[in-house]
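User: I'm writing a tutorial on reading structure tokens. Could you give me a worked example: one chain, its sequence, then its tokens, then a sentence or two explaining what the tokens reveal?
Assistant: Sure. Here is the example chain.
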Amino acid sequence: MSASQKVVIVTGASQGIGAAIVQAFRKLDYQVVATSRTIKPSDDANILTVAGDIGDPAVAQRVITETLARFGRIDTLVNNAGIYIGKPFTENTAEDYNAVMNVNMSGFFYITQLAITEMEKHGSGHVVSITASIGDNAISGIYSVLAAMTKGGLNSATKSLAIEYAKKGIRVNAVAPGVINTPMHSPEFHEVLGSFHPLGRIGEMSDITDAVLYLDSASFVTGEILHIDGGQSAGR
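And here are its predicted structure tokens:
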């Protein structure tokens, strides 16, 4: 454990944007704690993996405990874990609702509360959450009520936390993506998905990692919802 190396926790880290965020921070020589339900052990001594459901408070506690035991500090938390269920509002089931609330909301609440508690002890830290542009910018034909309830709620929580903890040296920000080129989107749908953005294409995972790294280094930025959505949030 190096006292000079910063430590970041990344949730939803096993694939897609989460895995890309892990690698982006490693390139900056951060020590990384990567967690998700399906995360596998890493050969990199500077990556600690913790498997489990981040919506479970016991898992959140284990992530924090193992982070401190292995690396001794928490500098940044990236709340990336999230799921999207796209159905007409009246077709959403109780199971759909509970699944989205568990990952998107509980998965944010427990780990963020625990991480900020540790950050307060040192008078510094940064929390950045991956939300969604569609959370506060509805698009006709896209079923987004559960996303709006949860991701839009996280955008609001980001601003509230930023103000609550500003004088304690802790910054809180969010990145709100549009549609991003990840394995969850088949290439045959890229063109139609791109049409939802004024720039006429979908984004790349590097667009999101660049935004996260910018916010992590931007010491005078807090309470910011950084839309990485090809202009979607500006209007269509």
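What the tokens reveal: The longest strand covers residues 170-177. The chain has one domain: 7-226.
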